[in-house]
Amino acid sequence: MSAVKVEMTGTVQTIRLDRPDVLNALNPEAYDQLAEAIRMAEDEAVRAVVLTGTGRGFCSGHDLSDADNDDPAAGLPEVNATMRAIRALRKPVIAAINGVAAGGGMSLALCCDVKLMARSARLVPAFLDLGLVPDMGASWLAANTLGYGRALEWLVSGEALDAETALEWGLVNVLVDDGELREAAQRKADELAAGPTLAIGLTKQLLSTALSASFEDTMEWEARFQQIVGRSADYAESLAAFRDRRKPKFQGK
User: Fold this and answer.
1) Is 49 helix (H, G, I), strand (E, B) or coil?
2) Is the pLDDT reported for residue 246 higher than 50?
3) SS3 content of the chain, % helix, strand, coil (to 5)
4) Is 98 or 67 the better-scoring residue by pLDDT?
5) How far is CA 73 from CA 32, 41, 61, 136, 143, in A?
6) pLDDT value at position 112?
């Protein structure tokens, strides 16, 4: 039985974690299928991605009932490669956080570019409750959003963060009533898919690089990426639309 379902609606790919009986906890099969789904999203036909979960949970993190939990770091190189692939994907990834996102599931949600959160959902940094440190990028994601002090206090507390606080702290972008999350995520994805995908993807890379680069180096990256988008069909279409006094119809490539 598939642990991850992939659906296409127009140019939007939805990746749905599908183990609702365990709040979509990630076992080796789910990790492998998630990695494959992200690889599928590289297809030019995909212009935006929605990541969500089936049932009451977004993702409760690593499945602790898995047979081999003696070494919690054993599978991290492969898992981390998937997290890097989400950040590097040259198109927007929207998290539709439909329920609890705990441990690695929280990391997965925060790794996405745009976060929509159901009002009943919770972010739970469950690592230290198990005697573990944050992983799957959670410490970087929290520190760069919250700053050292607040990130440390929250991560070591293990306290569940409600949706209102997550929005106030800047961890998520939009709160949505529970019954409206799926439609809201699709609308946001459609909106982003109608934009210049290549430029959006390269802007993702610029912002990630800027967090550790100098001002001068960032300007160099901007100039390189400007050359790339300047040769794209999206840019040609935007110029044509400007001259014709109409809205551009981006097709990518």
Assistant:
1) strand
2) yes
3) 50, 15, 35
4) 98
5) 16, 27, 14, 10, 21
6) 97
Q: Cα(83)–Cα(112) distance, rounded to whole angstroms?
A: 9
Given a contact cutoff of 8 angstroms between Cβ atoms, the answer to whether 77 and 29 are in contact is no
Is residue 196 within 8 A of residue 136, CB to CB? The reply is no
SS3 174: strand
The pLDDT, as a whole number, for residue 67 is 52
What would the mean pLDDT of 81-92 be, rounded to a whole number?
A: 94
Percent of the chain predicted with pLDDT > 90: 81
DSSP structure string for 88-134: H-SS-EEEEE-SEEETHHHHHHHHSSEEEEETT-EEE--TGGGT---
**CA–CA separation, 39 and 53 (whole Å):** 19
CB count in 10 Å sphere of residue 42: 12
Could you give the C-alpha distances from 9 to 59, 89, 97, 192, in angstroms and in order? 23, 19, 19, 14
Q: How confident is the model at residue 253 (pLDDT cuts 50, 70, 90)?
A: very low
Residue type, 18: D
Predicted local distance difference test score (pLDDT) of residue 69: 63
Q: How far is CA 63 from CA 66, 162, 176, in A?
A: 6, 23, 28
The pTM of the full predicted model, rounded to 2 decimals, is 0.93
Tell me: pLDDT of 61 over 90: yes
Q: Which residue has the tokens 């006094």?
A: 245
Residue 41 dihedral angles phi and psi, to the nearest 5°: -70, -15
Distances (CA, A) of 173 to 129, 166, 240: 27, 9, 33
d(CA 22, CA 9) in angstroms, rounded, equals 27
